Amino acid sequence: MTQLYDLHCHSTASDGALSPTELVKRAAENAVTTLALTDHDTTDGLIEARACADELHINFVNGIELSVQWEKQCLHIVGLNIQPQHEVLQKVIAELHIMRTERAEKIALKLAKKGIPDALAAVQGTATNETITRVHFANFLVSQAYVSTVTEAFDRYLGDGKVAYVSTTWTPLETAIQAILAAGGIPVVAHPLRYNLTATRMRKLLGAFKNAGGQAIEVVTGRYNPDEMRVLANYATQFELSGSVGSDFHSPTNQWIELGRLAVLPVSIKPVWELWQ
Ligand code: AMP
Ligand code: MN
Ligand code: MN
Ligand code: MN
To answer: Which residues line ligand 1 (CB under 6 A)?
Structure first.
């Protein structure tokens, strides 16, 4: 049987639109044979997702996508094949939840000053745990007709530098990598081209990542074109990192690609799943 890996996606445990069960069902319908759920800063969806994956006979990998800080830059580091309950990892998650709650309170204050009250209670009501994301605020702004789309919510209010933007100091890169390693997982740089780094900064990041114990980068991701995939494959080769494959699927209706609709990892790249299989 053809193997189809999708090692990056989101459920309602963070900012995805589908429950873990709905997500796994959709992956199975799309012929995914190995799925990793990688919600932002939480492992809460993993038990439900695994139960459904077992029922549908698809392989399931415990994952997470940690929000991290590297030289004033917010980056996303995926952890694959983690032990979800590991205390070092859960400590980092607890700290991230505090940061997210404090940020949410500040975002709500900024919105209130712009004449948009009650945002905090609304997002606390729609988030399934303490992982309150900007997408929760965006959905609130759409539901109250302050904007007509999530994209408009980011463009007008929530995007970097916009009126309700609040900067946060996330977990340091090295701490996040150590936590993933402690939990027996593989640290992976998520969507490396989405940070708009110069080639020099990218090499600096990958050097720091590798030094701290990082093992892979996403070489195939939802929104990349073939040229970008070649660039990423070159980085993986240069820094002796394995390659991962992930759609970053969030919702059936947003701009991200469909679950499992991914290019094949170039044959020159060592697949990340060989690190745990
Ligand atoms: P947060 O981690 O709470 O800052 O939220 C970031 C999340 O917002 C990302 O993981 C994306 O899912 C989503 N996001 C970021 N920018 C946009 C955008 N322009 N339009 C829609 N969703 C976005
Ligand atoms: Mn997201
Ligand atoms: Mn991300
Ligand atoms: Mn993601």
So the answer is: 15, 40, 67, 133-135, 150-151, 154, 159, 250
DSSP 70: E
CATH hierarchy code of domain 93-158: 1.10.150.650
Distance CA 201, CA 142 (A): 36
pLDDT tens for 111-153 read: 999 999 999 999 999 999 999 999 999 999 999 999 999 999 9
Burial status of residue 142 (CB atoms within 10 A of its CB: 0-12, 13-18, 19 or more): middle
Residue 223 has pLDDT above 80, yes or no: no
Residue intervals of the chain classified under CATH 1.10.150.650 are 93-158
Ligand 2 geometric centre to CA of 215 (Å): 22
Sign for the pseudo-dihedral over CA of 35, 39, 41, 43: negative
Q: 5-83+172-275 adopts what CATH topology?
A: TIM Barrel (3.20.20)
How many Å apart are CA 223 and CA 257, to the nearest integer?
7
Query: pTM value?
Result: 0.98
Q: What is the pLDDT of residue 169?
A: 95
